Amino acid sequence: MNLNYDVCVVGAGPVGSTISYYLSLKGLSVALLDKKTRIGYPLQCAGILSSHITEYNELPDNLIINRVRGAFLHSPNQILKVKKSGDAAYIIDRVAYDQFLLKRAVDSGVELINQKAIDFDIENGLTMLHDNHVIKSRIIVGCDGYNSNLSNHMGNSQSNYAASQMLVKIISDEMNSFRKSDIPDIKDYVDAGMFDKILPGFFWIIPTVDDVYRVGLFSNDSHKKQDLILGNFLKNNFKFEIIEKYKGFIPIFNKDNKMVKSRAILIGDAAGQIKPTSGGGLLIAFDACKFASEYIFEAIEKDDLSILEKYHEEFMNRYKKEFSYQIKVQKTLHLLSNDDLDYLFLKLKENDGEELISEYGDMDDQSRLVKESIKRGLVFKVIPSFLFKNVVKIFGFR
């Protein structure tokens, strides 16, 4: 087995497969490591991607299992209905998508090695494997997800939210009544106390096919507590059959962490490149793969590791402001009780908030909606008055 490569990529998920593919197309020799023999499983994602995905990566039509044009947003006793004129998002077969991206990488010349990376020497480009082999490369790319071993080796501090999801088949008549009700009483479906338990995270129900839904949440709770919340929600409201259960973690972005150190570079969950409000990050990571591949190729071609620092700089230039807005929104949600959240939703409805969200809401560019809300003065109308000073402090209004 050849153990010398231009680049060693750790983690063969969608991000690792994508950066490997880009680097291979540039003529570099690439080793792609993953301890799993079945890539993409178990599912650790809600599997819903913005329709902008095609601007960032290839997505075969046959992997799209449903299309989304709108959503119902719930507080304990209020509901907002938002709708786009065209497809806003795709619900995909995420396991098959991971496998598609891996096959594309391997077909381009990437060498897949089913071994776990257990240690690194980033000064000398060494990756130690579980089977005692050592891979030598000029660059090591960490795409090894939450609690990344390479990120830990670089001295970063990592923290995560727990996330849980169930694939559930729900009896048609019951879900149809849930779908068809124009303004359903959320108390009929969700325990009001649930919101206190999961904020600033959230709960989701995503339709796939044939009355099968992905039902999940992320929060500060343990997986055990999340499983109890999900189970109680389903038992109290539907006749259902659990097909599968999934558990995972969502990294929390830390602006002080290093994305580059010596011969090591981090992309995706390993770098905490996750939207603070929604916990999504695949499109951001795919974007990062594009410009990271350019800097990696240049650093190797010119034999100059300092070029890798441009990757961190470009990432922050592209996403620092967006993440800052989302962190402010998340901090605001931390302040809200159930009653406060109901008040915010009610005031949004009374002040054309549904239309505003429908027009300006974007899964990837969430700051656009925040900026427009501030511009129209809507923020000052929907926040409970006794919280106003705290919100002003969070957003830095003058």
Key features of this structure:
four-stranded antiparallel sheet; 24% strand; 398 residues; alpha+beta
Task: Describe the overall structure.
There is one protein chain. The protein is of the alpha+beta class. The chain contains 13 helices and 17 strands. Strands 1, 2, 8, 9, 10, 11, 16 and 17 form an 8-stranded mixed β-sheet that branches. Strands 13-14-12-15 form a 4-stranded antiparallel β-sheet. A 3-stranded antiparallel β-sheet has the order 3-7-4, with no helix packed on it. It is globular, with a radius of gyration of 22 Å. The termini are far apart.
Task: Please outline the helices and strands.
Blueprint: E1 4-10, H1 14-25, E2 30-33, E3 48-50, E4 64-68, E5 70-74, E6 79-83, E7 89-92, H2 94-107, E8 111-113, E9 117-121, E10 126-129, E11 134-142, H3 149-153, E12 160-170, H4 172-180, H5 193-198, E13 202-207, E14 212-219, H6 223-237, E15 240-251, E16 260-261, E17 264-266, H7 282-302, H8 309-335, H9 338-350, H10 353-360, H11 367-375, H12 378-382, H13 388-395
Parallel strand pairs: 1-2, 1-11, 2-8, 11-17
Antiparallel strand pairs: 3-7, 4-7, 5-6, 9-10, 10-11, 12-14, 12-15, 13-14, 16-17
